[in-house]
Amino acid sequence: MAQPEIEQFKVSTRHFNRIMIAIDDDDFISSRFAFDYACTVAKMYSVPLAIASVMETGDLNVFQSLDPETLAAHRQDVANDLNAYVEKAKAFGILDVVPLIGEGKPGKVIVDEMVPQFKPDLIVVGSETHKGARHQTIGSVAAFVTRYAPCTVIVVRDPSSSPKPTDEPSARQ
To answer: Which residues form a coiled coil (predicted)?
Structure first.
């Protein structure tokens, strides 16, 4: 017999008002499908879409991080890629697109700086699936955002990397 709460519960529509997509500038594959999803939902709901990109300073070696020209070039590359995503979202039909750019550890920058700035009620992140891995795992940035963001987070993966039913571990007896 169903619990009284379930008996009284009625399904209602869930509407998001501000969506943020976190783009990994170094990983187009994992970002691509998440970007498609975020754009689709933002367009369906006719809501603002923030496109967030973080320059990972940990990717630079000591010499690169101390060279102003190298840092400027790296910042410009990230900004150019972010602008390309903004243009693609606008071309898709999203009227309100907000670019957000930061530097540091991506998960922390997204949660601590970008979320308070934009105030999304949905964050979309991509997560790459490594071929040949026995179990699919969520990436470190997606895991951090999922754990610490104060709003709903959806992790989107490449549909071609989804496990096949035969890939599931057999039931234990």
So the answer is: none
Residues whose CB falls within 8 Å of the CB of residue 26, separated by 6 or more in sequence, listed in order: 56, 59
159: three-class secondary structure by DSSP: helix
- Angle in degrees, 0-180, between the axes of helices 68-92 and 28-45, rounded to the nearest 10: 40
Sheet containing strand 19-23, strands side by side: 97-103, 49-55, 19-23, 122-126, 152-156
- Predicted TM-score (pTM) of this structure: 0.82
Q: Which residues are 161's β-sheet partners?
A: none
What domains can you pick out in the chain, each with its CATH number? 16-158 (3.40.50.620)
The helix, strand and coil proportions of the chain, stated in percent and rounded to the nearest 5, come to: 50, 15, 35
Given a cut of 80, is residue 79 above it in pLDDT?
yes
Burial grade of 8 (CB within 10 A; 0-12, 13-18, 19 or more): exposed
